[in-house]
Amino acid sequence: MVGERLRAGPPGHHGSPRPGQLARALAGRPARWRPAGPAVRRPTTARDDEGAHVKIGSISGLTYRVGDLDRTTAFYEALGFRPGKRDERQATVYVNWFWLTFTTADDDAGAAVAPGSGPTLYLKVDDIDEAHAAVRAAGFTPSTEPRKVPAGRREFLLLDPDGHRLAFFTK
């Protein structure tokens, strides 16, 4: 069932997954991969297999609040990100199909967002020691040396100019 399309209704119909469908699709996965809490609805009737579908194709990018677009884009371009669209308030860089958009504007709700807050961006590399040496050769100082973490991978951390965490890792 993993990878099963969450659907309901006729083809082309859009909406929410049927009650219990997500839980059934995740059955058999290790507990760490299952959503916790009330987000997983339990089936209540035999008709739970009818309803809408949601199909997420990929996670495509992130948006980070930054203080200086020029400084931030120069940092990411030095790491090998490809420059993309830019205007006076935001700039986008790419690695493969994944994008990072940096903005100097507050969030859409008008609340100020502190630069450096947000998720850690994980960047998979083939050789962690080689990547660490290349980052240092580019003039950056990683926060940590390459190390094995409890999850079993080797990684090192680097902060961007606004304090956003980048974790370079290899399995």
Helix-strand string: HEHEEEEHEEE
Q: What is the helix fraction of residues, given as a range?
A: 10-25%
What topology, given as strand order, has the largest sheet? Answer: 1-4-3-2
Largest sheet: 4 strands, mixed
- Alpha-carbon Rg, integer: 20 Å
Features:
2 domains; disordered N terminus; alpha/beta; 3 helices; 171 residues; four-stranded mixed β-sheet; 2,3-Dihydroxybiphenyl 1,2-Dioxygenase, domain 1; 8 strands; single chain; 23% strand
Kindly describe this structure.
Residues 58-171 form the VOC domain. Residues 9-20 have a biased composition (Low complexity). Residues 1-51 are annotated as: Disordered. This is VOC family protein. The protein is of the alpha/beta class. The protein folds into 2 domains: 1-57, no CATH class; 61-170, 2,3-Dihydroxybiphenyl 1,2-Dioxygenase, domain 1 (Roll). Helix content is 15%, strand content 23%. It contains 3 helices and 8 strands; from the N terminus they run αβαββββαβββ. The protein has helices at residues 21-26, 69-78, 128-137, and strands at 61-65, 82-86, 90-95, 98-103, 121-124, 147-148, 154-159, 165-170. The strands form 2 sheets. It has a 4-stranded mixed sheet, with helices on one face. A 4-stranded mixed sheet has the order 5-8-7-6. The longest helix is centred in the middle third of the chain and has 10 residues, at 69-78. The two termini are 27 Å apart. The relative contact order is 0.14. The model is unreliable at 1-26, 29-35 and 42-48 (pLDDT under 50).
